[in-house]
Amino acid sequence: MGTRAMTAIRPFHLAFPVLDLEETRSFYVGVLGCGTGREDVHWVDFDLYGHQVVAHLDPNLDRAIAARNPVDGDDVPVPHFGVVLTMDQWRALAARLEANEGTRWVIRPRIRFEGQPGEQATLFILDPSGNALEFKAFNDDAQLFATT
């Protein structure tokens, strides 16, 4: 069941595998600015813009990007996850990532579908375990599911 309402959205939860929890913590807290929640020796909760993402230790992880699909001239990694930010949040994150010498870019900050329905700012990065993350923003949030 889907809804297109942009109010009262509940936090999303995602668990994902990582190779090293301390390296992961350093990236999600130090680079992305996430807060932390509960944790154990095998996992840690991160507050990613109000959403609960949980890094679970998998020392045997083989995180080569399995596939890429063409989207508006870019090869988008599959799988990936991320957050739809406000445009101000997106610009601040893009600037922070551009200033970080260690950022592992997949797709640098750009405008996708320019002048078309669903026009959006987007960027893709890899975390230290090779998980692909997308952060996007719209000048008009009503464009999130726009088709015309």
UniProtKB/TrEMBL annotation:
Q: What is the lineage of its organism?
A: Bacteria, Pseudomonadati, Pseudomonadota, Alphaproteobacteria, Geminicoccales
Protein name, per record:
Glyoxalase/bleomycin resistance protein/dioxygenase superfamily protein
GO-annotated molecular function: dioxygenase activity
What PANTHER family has UniProt attached to this entry?
PTHR39434, VOC DOMAIN-CONTAINING PROTEIN
Matches recorded under SUPFAM superfamilies: Glyoxalase/Bleomycin resistance protein/Dihydroxybiphenyl dioxygenase
In terms of superkingdom, the source organism counts as: Bacteria
What keywords would UniProt list here?
A: Plasmid
Coiled-coil positions are: none
Which organism encodes this protein? Answer: Tistrella mobilis (strain KA081020-065)
**Could you confirm whether the keyword Oxidoreductase appears in this record?**
no
Which Gene3D superfamilies would you find in this protein's record?
2,3-Dihydroxybiphenyl 1,2-Dioxygenase, domain 1
Which InterPro entries does the entry mention?
A: Glyas_Bleomycin-R_OHBP_Dase (IPR029068), Glyas_Fos-R_dOase_dom (IPR004360), VOC_core (IPR037523)
Domain VOC, first and last residues per copy: 10-138
